[in-house]
Automatic annotation (TrEMBL):
Example GO biological process: receptor-mediated endocytosis
Official protein name in the record: Protein amnionless
Name of the gene encoding the protein in the UniProt record: Amn
Keyword Cell membrane attributed: yes
Cellular component GO terms held in the UniProt record: apical plasma membrane; endocytic vesicle
Keywords: Cell membrane, Membrane, Protein transport, Signal, Transmembrane, Transmembrane helix, Transport
Topology term for the membrane: Single-pass type I membrane protein
Location within or outside the cell: Cell membrane
Amino acid sequence: MVDLAKRYLPHHFSFFSAVQAYNRLKSMISNCLLSFAIVGFYHIVCQSKAEDIKVWAVNTNFDNPRNWEGGRLPCANDRVIFSSSSSSVIFMPSSFAAAEMVLPINGELVFPKDAVFNLTGKTAQGSCIGQDAQFKPIVDDWYNPDNWNITSDRAYPRFPSRRNNAVPHAYRVPCTFDSVQFPPQTSFSVQGINPAPTITSLRINDLEYNREDLAKLLASSTGKLLFHNNPTINIINSPCSNPTGCICGNERPPVFSIICAFKYPCPELECQDPITVSGHCCPICAAKIIAKTNSNFRMDRFLELHRKLYNDIFNQVDSFTSKISENEVQIVFVDGTNRNSLSNKLSLLMHTIYNTGNQSQYIY
């Protein structure tokens, strides 16, 4: 690991000049990923909030093949069986036909407005030969990072259809200053909400919930099907107001251990020099910058530099910026291609700008 870390006073440049650092590191870039940490810039003037939007990504919808035995949706000549042990809220499609339906002992079927629902009895209908279709919804865990989609001003590039691989596991789960959403037209079943998470806001089916509203929902029969085991979810209605950013909070014990239990064992990596990243459960093929900040640091102007650096080439690099301590910011870069050097080049370019004093052409 090439370590350019050095503490120094505000407004001083790096121990290495930017050109020296660039030239020294440039020769080490090869087809494998180079891991390095660069710390110490004090002359960025910026501001941003740190909250993200975390959207629940899995559901117990009727038309989701994941919820059916064998991954097969039922056809019109099938007998649909809701297991007596699967106590769930199930969002139904707008149009549905089956030969027969066996309902669960405890559960709810939610039909959209003007839905069409027919029980036809067994009749031959083309390729639908008629068989039992078993509905087996999965109860998913709050702290599993794979169960959330993230929208963040701190993640680049901003392609909603692409999962950003630079986001550490701890930040894929709702943080203290995040807004949490359970999308409309979906049903869900969540467990493992312990220890109690703290979030800024909560929307379920496009309805905003405050603490009192949520308490009523959790005490209801529907709420007990949606959120298992009588959980506590703290809603603080207080977004991040610190211009230097806010710390996520998921790296504290025991939360981080719970998150990482879903990611172990760590995968085998193709790069020769993986790095460790704060908030990530496993080593990864990436580059990173660790930046020391002072009270003049402003996150939003810092992120503006990222935005201006991205182009058609660097759009193939995922990046994510996070405040990891009171005076440290971490930027992670992960290649979206097999060229492996792009993340290093982007991080080196950013380091050069930070340390030459030329960032005024990027930050206004």
